[in-house]
Amino acid sequence: MRIFITVILIFVLIGCQSSDNELSKGLSIIGTVHFPTPGVNADSIYQAIKMAKPDVILLERDSTAFDDNFKPLFDDQENESLAIKRYLKEHPDVSIRPIEFEGRNSYRVEIGLFPQANEVYQKLNEMARSGQFSNQQQEIWDQFAQYWMQMDSLSSESLKALNTKYTDKLLEKAKQIQYTEMKKLVNARDEYNKLMLDARGDSISLKDYFNKWEQFEHYERNNAMVANTIRTMNSMPKQKFVLIVGYHHRYYIKNKIEKQSPEIILSEYYN
């Protein structure tokens, strides 16, 4: 009888361990820059992937960048593309999956967006230089400029510098100013009722364009990448994942995954 109980306990313990392993999956989020800087390039990203040793690489691309078997079709010179192709040559058993907002580029055009809000920021810069802002508005612009310089400096430093808690906090504050505070500023000024041509060639006010652009870039796109990351990880039995994404997105994705999927164990590639 004692032997029988012992055997049952062993099977229960094994079952619990198996269940825990199935629920817990490891993810390293590597924030990158798409083109070389003095401190970040394809080689440094390749070395980071080597350190992380993933079973699956998740990438800031949509399905159009792959064939039906998820073989990469991209042939560009972006840092991530070069690093991943080099790594896959040496580790052909590693899987790769897209997590970008599906049809991002065509969707942008469909709703009249360019990748950036250049005309709006040019107008903001013009007004700041000519002293047209109130003291409070000027302070917001100055904070934004300061944070942007810090971010540029970090991107020139090293890949590790882009992937720390300090940088995550810096980006979170910078993006709060770039999107939320700037939107308030733009919406409060009549100057942004000026018309521009959107990506479809239609007329739209700078104000309406910025609100639409902010909604897509800050929320819709980031939330899609979060959802696609979680869905893909849940659909695959492999345990060790690496997500390679522009470092401006890292803090948002990381925060959302921590809240929405606490079973995913987040770690840094250099640990």
Descriptive tags:
271 residues; 5-stranded parallel β-sheet; two-stranded antiparallel sheet; 9 helices; 7 strands; disordered N terminus
Q: Please, could you describe this protein's structure?
A:
The chain has 271 residues and is α/β, with parallel strands linked by helices. Helices cover 57% and strands 12% of the residues. It contains nine helices and seven strands. The protein has helices spanning 2-23, 42-52, 79-90, 104-110, 118-129, 135-157, 165-188, 206-235, 247-260, and strands at residues 25-32, 56-59, 95-98, 195-197, 203-205, 240-246, 264-267. The protein has a five-stranded parallel beta sheet, with helices on both faces. It has a two-stranded antiparallel sheet with strand order 4-5. Strand 4 and strand 5 form a beta hairpin. It is globular, with a radius of gyration of 22 Å. The N and C termini lie far apart (47 Å).
